Amino acid sequence: GTGLNALIQAKGKKYVGFCADSGTFGNAQTAAILKAEAGQLTPENSMKWDATEPSQNSFNFGNADALVNFAQTNGKILRGHTFVWYSQLPSWVSAINNKATLTSVIQNHITTIMTRYKGKIYAWDVANEVFNDDGTMRSSVFSNVFGDWTFLDVAFAAARAADPAAKLCLNDYNLDYSGAKLTNFVALVKTLKARGVPVDCVGTQSHLIVGNGAIPSYKSTLDSLATTGAEVQITELDIRTNSSPSSSQISQQQTDYTNVVCGCMKQAACAGITVWGVSDSQSWIPSVFSGMGYALLWDANFNKKAAYTAFVNGI
Ligand code: XIL
């Protein structure tokens, strides 16, 4: 094959993938690109808590099932995303104020979803974004009610019991440069593993900005993550710039994509790369970062960008 997934597998990595959901793969051009280029898919929104359990013990699987079926029909592995996260969390969960109730709610949520997709998910983001950017524990109903990191013990234990074959990940963003967040993330994973919490993989989202000075040394952050002994996955890669970029920004974006992909290729623990969308027309960036966009490998008209070639050059 000639797609990105085939190219990276030929060099010994497990996958190149993309986020998707019915709203994006329902577009015929997106579906065709995913079929040709992806080895792996991540649900962009359909497996989040607000989508799957909007009220207590009342589960919705329509969009998640659609993504799993699309992946299975087309031979793509899946990353499940995500359980314990402060965002896209329904208010009935945020309102829980005692540990016993929250423990059983976490266990029921994880067990129900992982049992439904048992054997079909390569890796799950069991917890997402549990750190502040200064490296301290992020405030959430989970950290506030437990008072320490032991909400992770509960979540990872429930996940391991529900689907023992799935790799269990801790995922976060802004791990792309040295500093307290990366240092403390690595230290937490080591501490969790030392007390028997089953953390199999670490995810670095890598929502990057064109020209960020840390990108040339991106491999060193993968090296730091690899010291945990866990598999390293680049889980949500995009490299944003102005929505109408200059020619120098376009060319810098190529350098940046090549550097990130090269970093993964040169770190044995890096298993694969998930890009956070296919076409710039479907990217989350413009709606969240005002004036920014142009972050992906296909333009708004579904043409391959120079960034695509830069990605290939990194493999
Ligand atoms: C984003 C989705 O792309 C958007 O469609 C949604 O509106 C908000 O969430 N970190 C994560 C992802 O872990 O789940 C987020 O996805 C992007 C940031």
Written description of the protein model:
With 315 residues, the chain is of the alpha/beta class. The chain has helices spanning 4-10, 22-25, 28-37, 49-52, 62-73, 91-94, 99-116, 141-146, 150-162, 180-194, 218-226, 247-266, 285-288, 306-314, and strands at residues 15-20, 40-43, 77-84, 123-128, 167-172, 201-204, 207-209, 231-242, 270-275, 292-293. The chain has a single domain (4-314), classed as TIM Barrel, CATH 3.20.20.80. 43% of the residues lie in helices and 18% in strands. The chain has an 8-stranded parallel beta barrel, surrounded by 6 helices. The longest helix has 20 residues, at 247-266. The mean pLDDT is 98. The protein binds (3S,4R)-3-hydroxy-2-oxopiperidin-4-yl beta-D-xylopyranoside. (3S,4R)-3-hydroxy-2-oxopiperidin-4-yl beta-D-xylopyranoside (XIL) binds at residues 44-45, 128, 205, 236, 284. Pathway: Glycan degradation; xylan degradation. One of its GO terms (cellular component) is extracellular region. This is Beta-xylanase. Residues 19-314 form the GH10 domain.
